[in-house]
């Protein structure tokens, strides 16, 4: 998803004779801040930022210095800047509605830590769609990984999926369908299910 967004950003920027510098924070808040400091030092004045921070102070610091910031795929309440977001709330709701139409009532959610706005939107969309379908929320069907570390061999989301898959399999959950936070995490979950002999979609 981010690779596709980056391709679009670079294409449009080049059309207007702008260069694009890409920085990967590896989901590290300190590294993100250091990159923003470096860009300000190099007089880069416009940044498209998919922040991992949940605090507005660090980003507002650079806005106050004159940096133009557009948040990608995130929102931070209280931060006055432009933002471009995918409708994660609606997407989660559509996924639940689809599963309900297939006859499922015991629908689980597997997610990485709820530290980002988009993930909380997915959780809210999941909860509201269940409510609209007349299904009560069962907290035991919401599975959250404990940590994420982008520096690990296969990446944080995949490893989180493995962790979630093990948690679901070991807990003998009664779920018949599962909404997973993203496709890479889903790969980790499905890897565990295959190893454990849990057949999908059965």
Whole-number mean pLDDT: 90
Number of helices: 7
Gap from first CA to last CA: 29 Å
The helix content is 40-55%
Secondary structure: number of strands: 6
Oligomer: single chain
CA-based shape: elongated
Low-confidence blocks of residues: none
Written as H for each helix and E for each strand, in order along the chain, the element string is: HHEHEEHEHEHEH
**Strand residues, percent:** 5-15%
Largest sheet properties: 3 strands, parallel
Which structural category do the helix and sheet elements fall into? alpha/beta
- Major sheet: order of its strands? 1-2-3
Backbone CA Rg:
19 Å
Task: Describe the structure in your own words.
With 202 residues, this protein is an alpha/beta fold. It contains 7 helices and 6 strands. Helix 5 (117-132) links the parallel strand 4 (107-111) and strand 5. Helix 4 packs parallel to helix 5 (117-132) and helix 6 (156-170) crosses helix 7. The longest helix has 16 residues, at 117-132.
């Amino acid at each position: 998803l981010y690779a596709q967004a980056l391709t679009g950003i670079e294409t449009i920027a080049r059309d207007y004779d702008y260069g694009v510098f890409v920085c990967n924070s590896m989901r590290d808040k300190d590294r993100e801040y250091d990159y923003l400091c470096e860009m300000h030092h190099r007089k880069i004045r416009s940044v498209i930022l998919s922040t991992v921070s949940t605090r507005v102070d660090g980003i507002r610091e650079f806005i106050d210095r004159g940096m133009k910031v557009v948040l990608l795929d995130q929102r931070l309440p209280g931060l006055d800047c432009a933002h471009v977001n995918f409708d994660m709330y609606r997407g989660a709701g559509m996924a639940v509605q689809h599963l309900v139409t297939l006859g499922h009532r015991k629908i689980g959610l597997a997610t990485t830590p709820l530290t980002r706005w988009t993930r909380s939107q997915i959780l809210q969309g999941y909860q509201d769609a269940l409510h609209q379908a007349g299904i009560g929320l069962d907290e035991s069907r919401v599975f959250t990984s404990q940590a994420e570390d982008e520096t690990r061999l296969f990446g944080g989301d995949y490893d989180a999926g493995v962790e979630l898959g093990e948690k679901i399999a070991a807990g003998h959950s009664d779920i018949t369908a599962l909404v997973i936070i993203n496709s890479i995490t889903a790969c980790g979950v499905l890897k565990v299910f295959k190893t454990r002999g849990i057949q999908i979609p059965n």
